[in-house]
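Annotated sample (chain length 399).
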Amino acid sequence: MTADMMNLQALLEKSSDTDLLREMIAFAAQRLMDLEVESMTGAGHGVRSADRLNYRNGYRDRDWETRAGTVELRIPKLRKSSYFPGFLEPRRMAEKALTAVIQEAYVQGVSTRSVDDLVKAMGMSGISKSQVSRLCGEIDGKIKAFLERPIEGDWPYVWLDATYVKARRDGRIVSVAVIIAVGVNGDGRREVLGMSIGASEAETFWTDFLRTLTRRGLRGVKLVISDAHEGLKAAITKVLNATWQRCRIHFMRNVLAHAGKQGRGVVSAFIGTAFAQPDADAAHKQWRQVADQLRPKVKKLADFMDDAENDVLAYMDFPPAHRTKLHSTNPIERVNGEIKRRTDVVGIFPNDEAIIRLVGAILLEQNDEWAVQRGRYMTLESVATVSDNPIVLLSAVPA
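Output written by the structure step:
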């Protein structure tokens, strides 16, 4: 350990600022490999031991591409078996997808200066079409299987939303709608149900998407939460025949536009009293009282509230334990935020396949994270009250 510290100190003293990070990565990686090989052989390098299990057999050189640049590694070889350092395992799927998208844009000649800078920052050089094809093929099969998997069980709650990215189509740069569905099943677990891309959020597009979900097995939907897009509303009614919850946050943004800058705080507080009520009847009663109080001074705002009452308060007819998660599209907005963060790095996608590849990989990772969470998004007992197949709770058997 003392020798390692002296080597590191010497490295810090002699390295320039530009090379320091890369040299430190190389030093740490080499030390990590030595420790891993030591555990596999049962003895340190050059140490005689009766407990030795294996022997070293030289090194093989390998370049490791990092965001700090190319790091030259000397990977130890073993006589009786093979060794491969764990930190060189393939990247996470979304990172692979991001790399593939950038590489594809680069190879097809549609890269911008920002993409070129990103390619250099990730330490990539000498990109070939065969490398792109191999990497894309590895990812696409997994994404396709995930997005087309059967949907099993009941799904009482579904959130729908869309975000937009830019892509090249027929030589032009256009905005493409990426629509996503997230649901909670009868076990109280959250999953990504599907995604699709299209030119716009037209009713036909949403209808086709929802029908695809039902063909895969989506059923038992009681409440759909989304913004007030007319095409989406019509598709929900036509395909799912479920109650629609208008996102409360989107509604408040719209209604406050009618209040003026001076009155926004007061109007927001007034309407908020309806959301604080303990049940649906009280919430509707308070909503109408607030609308009537505002009507003499701001008739347009009151009329807006009249039209939106049932849609904004739909979530109040569901279990109190669920209401904080049902009144808005926040659960899916967080997913969209991660999608925007990752897609903004790309800027302009070279084609639709690249969009599906990257966004699908992000959704797959998110779905995996939800799957391994210990706690349910909603408790099993509370979800049973809105499920078509409620759980049967057995009473304790006396000893």
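Annotation: Confidence is low (pLDDT under 50) at residues 14-18, 392-396.
Annotation: The radius of gyration is 28 Å.
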